[in-house]
Amino acid sequence: MTYEYSKRADGLVITGCGGGGEILYIPEQIGGEPVTAIGSAALRDNKVIKKLGLPDGVREIEDGAFSNSALDAVRLPKGLERIGAQAFLGCGRLVRIRVPERTKKIGNAAFYGCAGLERVIFPASLVEIGYNVFSGCPALASIKCPRGSYAMDWAERNGYGGNLVYDYEICVGGINLKKYIGGEAVHKMPPYVNGKRVAALDEEAFAGCGYVESVELLRGLTVVEKFTFRDCAGLKRVVLPETVREIKTHAFVGCVSLKEVNFPPSLEYVGTHAFRDCASLEKISLPAKIAGINSKTFAGCESLAEAGLPEGITFIADDAFAGCGNLKTVRCAEGSYAALWAGERGYAVSAELPCNGFA
Description:
Leucine-rich repeat, LRR (right-handed beta-alpha superhelix); rod-shaped; eight-stranded mixed beta sheet
């Protein structure tokens, strides 16, 4: 094996190599001088070398050093401090990577397009992780990190904090979460899953998940699809972000334990049967943009005692609150359509305007 290299103050930078077979172990020294870095594009597009060992004195792997190569196994050096941008981009045969304990920085797209990558271990020493590091790595479900570290925080924020908790499909703008398959009783919807941006939550995503007690939906979500939480018997609390504009038909039907749900100011429409048979719901407060309440939207909410309705509402279906035998008080503006509607049905009318958020 012959090596090409350049010199710098702290040692040699490998810039290329020739000859040899599928296994390469770069030596600690060449000509008595230490090897301290792998240069930019040093083994880019190399289709011969499959297994690579780097000496522990190497502190830096520069940008694109091994991009689009045929590597299927790499031993990273103990002294490594930095992995450059696109260093292993397109290395589709890599299966696992263990980042050493002294590594501080991983550059943008360092492992982008490593389609076979299944297992990654991060150290506590990391202080900087770039963009799109694992984009195009569909087999990577989780990253092992020390608890409480920057790496753990990054992994959780980017959807690699643990086992995959959603089935999903690729869609315009990111991924569509098809079905929740996690086991958490308290769940906060992540912005990323498997390193891919979450763009939508599908119909029936949580349907029948009786063990889920609390869900906080992702900011940026604009629609709660039909049947999303159908028959979630244990669900007690839902937090809707201030970006939700529509709750579709039957979205929360049969959530018999649901006691707490906020209706954000952004909300414009709630579909038929959306909260039907939510038997534990005691209060609601609908925001100003709601213009009407549709058929059986709150039917069967037998614990509902108080409803806050906005001044601008112009339509309430006759059966919107069917089976709500405990409904006694409607909070609304004096002289509004809601006040007239409530008075005709014998409800106590409070002139206190409904608030937004949790009732």
